[in-house]
Amino acid sequence: MSRHIGLPVWIFVLLFCAAPILAQTEKIAELVRRADTAFDDEDRKLALKLYLQVVNLNPEQSHAIYRLGQLAGSDEAALAWFVRYVRLEPDDAWGWIAVGDKYLRVGKVIEARDAYRRAAKLAPQAKEIRPRLDRAGVRAAPVLEPLGGVTGDSDGNRTWKFGLSGDAALRSGFRIGAKATRAHISDGLTAAILDEGLFRLQGRPRAALRLEAAGGGVRLSALGSSAWTTPEAAFRLRWNSADNAASFDFRVQRMPLGTTPLLVTNRAMRNELRLDGTVPVGPVRVRVGGRGADIETAVEKKNRKTQGDAALVFPIGWRGELSAQYHRIGFQRISRAGYFAPKRVETIEGGTYWEIGGDGRWSAEVDLGIGMQRLAIQPQNVGPWKPALRAWGMWNVDVTRTMAVKTEMEAYIAPFAPAGVSTSPNWRYASLIFSLVFRVF
Fold first, then answer.
1. Closest residue by Cα to residue 279 from 245, 310, 251, 320
2. Among 132, 172, 314, 318, which residue's beta carbon has the most beta carbons within 10 A?
3. Distance CA 441, CA 438 (A)
């Protein structure tokens, strides 16, 4: 008899325990329905709020997790949600496609390629996967890049440069590589040779953060003087906000000023520190920067070079800009080591920068400036304003899946260039570099 009485009691206990679970399940289902409706109505704020409530109640609700990836405010946040989704739904090819897309966006090309391969195995007939896999494969492939080019200036200095560089992708968005070049330098009377070997590491540990580091050695020799070898190094850290409106750029560099035989003979070196930053102010951006460099030679004391830069930038979309710029450069003292060291140089110019293409088989970057420049030769007063022009461009064309052609051009028509050193007050300069990029699959 007690057995017949006990059965309803156990049923009651089970129902009593299950009631909260059933209520929770119904609450989650209702939140999902409301969130989906907000998502379909493109009410992203409400949808985000509701899907987060769902995940707080059930951390394994994969549908809500996927939607949170679609609604995330940054590529890194979206990637974290999509990775969490495929852990719960490892057999969903479209989940792996989403993971691959975000890995590619944050520069982690090895991880993107692996995600697309996983998607291809799960859905071999899906047409969306093959183009993505090919694109990730191209970006993840090791690269060999033979290069050659020539530079020349109005003082008769010419440099022919040849070399080979290569790199390979690593996980976490990094690439490691090396570069070896030889430059033949001539001024029409004498000649010099500059041999350079560098190891390089660059990458994006975070979507907004880029690191570049290089180090190695340089051997320089000129007719009539003994050869010398010196270390060379560079480091750069760049941070950009998600909308690219704000940025910070920090650089340090040690390099030889081996652009003329006389500078090679006098063992001219530059050690430079540079800081630049951009902040948004309403619809425009304010960009300021500064540089300080010590120029060392074997024939005189260190000479300090300083530079200040300011610009008002008007963005056009996310690939172009117009700017009004001011630059001021000065040297501590006059130099007799083979480079021009004025007391002061001022440049006022209008500039424009554009990134073109990039989604297909070709891409280009163009940076142009036109304005006026004046300088003060030490120890004289500042002279009259003169026209100043500058231009820089780079073009990249994919000839085949395994080969691309890259061309880089730079030119100054100005009394003094805002970068590097010149050799006379009225200096003009041009550079043209070609390279072939071979992707090794």
1. 245
2. 132
3. 10
